[in-house]
What we know:
Helices cover 29% and strands 17% of the residues. The protein has 2 helices and 2 strands.
Amino acid sequence: MSLFATDRVLxxxxxxxTSFEALEKTIDFVKDASHIYVIHVLxxxxxxxxxVMWRTVD
Length: 58
């Protein structure tokens, strides 16, 4: 029994160089690439007041 299950592997991608390196290493690690699932992740969005996002008109 392996330490890691390779039947389903999720790789988060944020389009940084590091995330693509992680994807390449995952492809090397997993025997069958059809078991790799890629998800695009975004940085957390902070809620803001409308006046901060758009300038107010006086």
